[in-house]
């Protein structure tokens, strides 16, 4: 019997699916919703999607027997060969105006079910929240991007610490450890999806610079306290101003946290690679943490 194949195209407004945030919220969320929430996986023998470069390894973690990632050009060329009843176009959810809280929650539950054994294994690792008392504090450190993002294969060049970093990251880590008793500092460039789900779903306090890692808020629990570190306006640097304007006008991560019923605060830094304002962080965290403790 001839295999029934479905051609899936996922559209979004900006960015590249080869970068983690746009892949996670713009590509993986609508795909998992279609396959595992809405039942699409039960109707087809093969589901064809475009390759997302390094993110294909995350697709592989789903261990779907029907999911197949094709090279971008091949996937695009095949679209015209499929009749309308064997093609579907899904909408990416990575633009803040397109955020869908119900979809995020449904996909979060579906992914946690699919990866349950591997997420549990990650929680048993020695470098998890061992020896910590409440609250569990997670700090994300940006690292240099894999070589792919400097190659001709990449749709959009540069990623990771080449784009943004925290100049006083070690001081930030030390301050959080003193304030809370412990702090788990992690890098995610090589982390599996299961590890990221495990980390973000267990954390009580998440501190990260504006960027891809905060897409993982879809795994975090309601009430989680999120601190986003962002460059301020007024630096005079064009790239810094562009990021600061986008964060202050669109507030993508703040709106994502709101979708997931999480607490959110923003702390400034002096530039894309400048120091985080630890005094501002101290004021915000100590004020809000007292409220969180009273509410617990």
Task: Describe what you observe in this structure.
The protein has 296 residues and is α/β, with parallel strands linked by helices. It has two domains: 110 residues, no CATH class; 168 residues, Rossmann fold. The chain contains ten helices and nine strands. The protein has a five-stranded parallel beta sheet, with helices on both faces. The chain has a four-stranded parallel beta sheet with strand order 3-2-1-4. Strand 1, helix 1 and strand 2 form a beta-alpha-beta unit. Helix 1 crosses helix 4 and helix 5 crosses helix 7.
What's the helix and strand layout?
Layout: E1 5-11, H1 20-37, E2 46-50, H2 56-61, E3 67-70, H3 72-78, E4 87-91, H4 101-114, H5 116-123, E5 137-140, H6 169-180, E6 184-186, H7 193-202, E7 205-209, E8 225-231, H8 238-250, H9 252-259, E9 263-269, H10 278-295
Parallel strand pairs: 1-2, 1-4, 2-3, 5-6, 5-7, 7-8, 8-9
Which H/E pattern describes the elements? EHEHEHEHHEHEHEEHHEH
- The CATH topology name of the largest domain reads Rossmann fold
What's the CATH class label of the largest domain? Answer: Alpha Beta
Number of strands: 9
Query: What's the CATH architecture name of the largest domain?
Result: 3-Layer(aba) Sandwich
Structural class, judged by helices and strands? alpha/beta
Strand sequence of the main sheet, in spatial order?
A: 6-5-7-8-9
Individual helix count: 10
